[in-house]
Amino acid sequence: RQSTDALLPSRSNYAEVLGSRYPTDSATNITPAIISKLPLRLHTKPDHPLNTLRTKIESHYADFAHLSSFSPLVTPFKNFDELAFPADHPGRSVTDSYYVNRDLMLRTHTSAHEVEVFGQGETKWLLTADVYRRDEIDGSHYPVFHQMEGARIFDASPTGMKEVEDDNERLSYHLAQSNIIIEDIPHISPTNPSQATHDPRHSELVAKNLKLSLNSLMLTLFGGATRDEPLRVRWIEAYFPFTSPSFEVEVFFRGKWLEILGSGVVRQSTLDTAKVPNKIGWAFGLGLERIAMILFSIPDIRLFWSEDQRFLSQFTHGQINTFKPYSRYPSCFKDVSFWAPQPEGLHENDFCDLVRDVASDLVEDVKKIDSFVHPKTNRTSLCYRINYRSMDRSLSNEEVNEIQAVVVARLKDQFGVEIR
Ligand code: FA5
Ligand code: MG
């Protein structure tokens, strides 16, 4: 092999993750860049905006249990099967999720802990955690982000339903006093049905409670920021394997509708698996970065990971203030063109992860700028433009060339591409 050997990742038969060693196998795709994020837990970092946002949501749900110390390492069974994901769901593939080995992965959502938490007997709870998904690279996508799961279950009995009705009345009254416009949809419909094992009247009341509860949360989070105009919230029919009916919530902010969360009435099999009998309830999962970017006017999702004092010193725990951008260092782009390996091709997420692994946070975004199939040989040519920028210093052209050379070497070595 050539001189680039030292730059290539070692093909070790174990991976060291959070202080433990795990055997690797053909599913292993976790990278050192990702492993280095696991201990950081930004949602608990002092003065960090994600921590302030978590605390704000926890104060809104003051009588809920507040959980935030679950390990990111879960079995695929826990992340998918327990939640009734079908065997062929795309999220399970190694191109979409990070695997330590085929039996251990990084959670892709906080819902992975639902069965565990319900099983511990919690009936009202919030759980905050870092989640991991293989994705493209740009200012609003990062392979690690943070979610907060919230859930509440009631007795599936007349007493339990009376509790829901009383809560619905209290929340409706509060919302009627507030400056909020809600675009609602039916709680239950033929395309968004209640579950076969549920009394539809119970399902309807619980879905209504979910919506009122989240409308009230949106008012707490965004009400202040849109003081003059009313806050606009819209409900959209959704699909998740582990809830029915299911909904997404969008909030209108600075001229755009933004997806904030997914939610629904908890599938009974989840509660059955958790050995919780005779209950019915709801759950939601929201993205903290999406909300924090709006509330703190943070323009780029990678800033949350910055160690730069010009970023960190702007925030104080518990305070929501507008981020003041400081001047950015110049960017520098490099293109790479190659023939994709045949016949398997090269998945964009594999390309992005390779770049992220080599360049870490020095990569700002990656764009496919050209792709064509050679009419005679049938080979696919791809051209990607990698934009490099440091958050805290000026990069020299030589330095960027060196990084790019490693990207190219690893492309050849790991994926067998032919550089053009
Ligand atoms: C889920 O992850 C479901 N577990 C949510 C859920 C929980 C549904 C409980 C029903 C009951 P989804 O993949 O849509 O769903 O992600 C939920 C939220 O996470 C999104 O609304 C968004 O706010 C945030 N999110 C998703 N992908 C990203 C990303 N790449 N970057 C930042 N935030 C993201
Ligand atoms: Mg979604």
CATH architecture of the largest domain: 2-Layer Sandwich
Annotation field: number of helices: 11
Let me know the CATH homologous superfamily of the largest domain.
Bira Bifunctional Protein, Domain 2
Q: Give the CA-based shape.
A: globular
What is the CATH class designation of the largest domain?
Alpha Beta
Radius of gyration: 23 Å
Helix content: 25-40%
Note the beta-strand portion. Answer: 25-35%
Q: End-to-end distance, in Å?
A: 20 Å
What is bound: which ligands? adenosine-5'-[phenylalaninyl-phosphate], magnesium ion
Sequence of secondary-structure elements: EEHHEEHEEHEEHEHEEEHEHHEHEEHE
Assign the CATH topology of the largest domain. Answer: BirA Bifunctional Protein, domain 2
Strand order of the largest sheet: 3-7-8-13-12-11-10-9
Q: What structural class should be given to the helix and strand makeup?
A: alpha+beta
Q: How many beta-strand elements?
A: 17
**Major sheet:** 8 strands, mixed
Which regions have little confidence, pLDDT < 50, spanning 5+ residues?
1-8
Mean pLDDT across every amino acid position: 93
Could you characterize what this model shows?
The chain is an alpha+beta fold and 420 residues long. The chain folds into 2 domains: 280 residues, BirA Bifunctional Protein, domain 2; 92 residues, Alpha-Beta Plaits. Helices cover 28% and strands 27% of the residues. It contains 11 helices and 17 strands. The strands form 4 sheets. Strands 3-7-8-13-12-11-10-9 form an 8-stranded mixed beta sheet. It has a 4-stranded antiparallel beta sheet with strand order 15-16-14-17. Helix 2 crosses helix 8. The relative contact order is 0.13. The N terminus is likely disordered. The site of adenosine-5'-[phenylalaninyl-phosphate] has 23 residues, from strand 8, strand 12, strand 13 and helix 8. Adenosine-5'-[phenylalaninyl-phosphate] binds next to strand 8, strand 12, strand 13 and helix 8. Its EC number is 6.1.1.20. Keywords: Aminoacyl-tRNA synthetase, ATP-binding, Ligase, Mitochondrion, Nucleotide-binding, Protein biosynthesis, Transit peptide. Its main location: mitochondrion. InterPro entries: aa-tRNA-synth_II (IPR006195), aa-tRNA-synth_II/BPL/LPL (IPR045864), Fdx_antiC-bd (IPR005121), Fdx_antiC-bd_sf (IPR036690), Phe-tRNA-synth_IIc_mito (IPR004530), Phenylalanyl-tRNA_Synthase (IPR002319).
